[in-house]
Amino acid sequence: MLAGCTPWPEEYARRYRAAGYWEDITLDEMLRRSARARPDALAIVEGDRALTYAQLVEQVERLAAHLAALGLRPRERVIFQLGNSTELVCTFFALMRVGAIPVMALPAHRHAEIGRFARHAEAVAYFVPESTPGFDFRALAQTVQREVPSLRLIVEAGSRGAQAPGIVALGSLLATPASAEARSRLASVPPCEADDVALMMLSGGTTGLPKFIPRTHNDYLYNCRQSGAVAGFGPDTVYLTVLPMAHGYTLASPGILAALAHGGRVVIAPDHRPETVFPLIEKERVTIVCGGVPLAVSWLASDGPERADLASLRYYMNGGARLLPELRRQIEQRLGCTYIESYGTGEGLLNQTRPDDPEHIRFHSSGRPVSDGDEIKVIDEAGNEVPEGTVGELAARGPYTVRGYYKAPEASAAAFTADGYYRMGDAVRQVGGYLYLEGRIKDLINRGGEKVSSEEVENHLIAHPSIHNVCVVAMPDPLYGERACAFVIPRAGATLEFDAMKRFLVEREIAKFKLPERLELVESFPLSPAGKILRRELRAIIAAKIEAEQAAQGGAREITANRPGAPGTTQDEGDCR
Question: Could you report the per-residue pLDDT of 309-322, keeping only the tens digit for each?
């Protein structure tokens, strides 16, 4: 395995092969097998452009020959930041073909992240999106190249790159037949082993600069194939991609790789607006959409579901962050499909609800592991397993859960136990084999020893008719240590008063100590490049506000319910005891 990575112990590798989890083929070979089985079936559709499986493999082979001629070799790392496109799919598989290892950056990443990625990976190439009116990616690439000595090649999406010295145009490579010399260079590239690192995913991203997660061909193929099987993928699957395709959820959990592994079709949406997505579902007879919380909230707030024929749609899958039960119910009612909750991590473990699960499981749980080979346990701070139904931290190991980060021994030692379990940092309960996510360990608000689940309170608040979206975070308090603050995005034309929010929650009969003790109305939430709400930024915002208020009041402590342009009101000390 690549230096700086932690392999699975040999006894586990033998076990996973014997069980059939590891097929000992590469991701490139997976695509070729699908193409041999269904050469004339459509593999990729993007607007008016469509590629059959045979055409896709032909494009991959052509591009791989060009990349080999440009000097890319097995195990060299490249920064991969392409936007959603057929080019992304072709380039990803071409890199698999030559054995170069893409570091899966997102289009939203900028200099601070890309520069760090390139240095840490000792990247030799940077695949960059076309520049837009809002951002000059070419300038970013050139800046990073000046700063990182190992970076010798810039490949720009589209065809404009041919106009700039030192930049290769990806579109031109895809359009130009490979020369005999290029094909010969590709033929001389030594074949990859299935145990080799195929790609580097990025960890989390909501707590600082991500760490590199080395995924092998064996584990990542099983990851996509098995998660797709659990979600009912097959040759008749039409998968609509709307989230960033370089993100693990959209790439392979189950994602585009699962659709291609099962012989299905991938449809690439040009954007995620409801006026784009729902007509596309009707036109392409889409069977599954995999979205996230912000998209679900946006789509349900629109009239898109009623303006299109969604008869083909079987499943809506949510991933990235837990969707509140009330919104899951609305999705099934308005989209006329079955809801699937997906909960997992870039480090490996995937959990999904099953299409035939009863309502209370589909609407409330975070699913159960997709593989019989997954080993999970819920542990306390000392690492001891807790009784069923008790909240603790989820830890996992298995055939597609990695054993360590790339060149990060301290981070690996903190995140992985001596016996190979990955400590996910998530607070969960396990009941009847299903997991119930309570939030991140740090998202449990500790109010004087009483633990308040942000997600539980959010689930109640999202049912309020004036609330479009909500995020509950901890704010500092000198008496209780922490109290809860509700950041709320109101529905269009609506507003919300603190006392009205409080009465609403009291009527839903939740414990008073769980009531938020401050309300902040906002227009939007800070989001990570993957679309997750950055709770740490909301915590920092409210902490700074409280500090400023206390300074203005001469240090007096007051818990207020704020709304823009209005004075705060004080919450009674005893109300939440």
Answer: 999 999 999 998 78
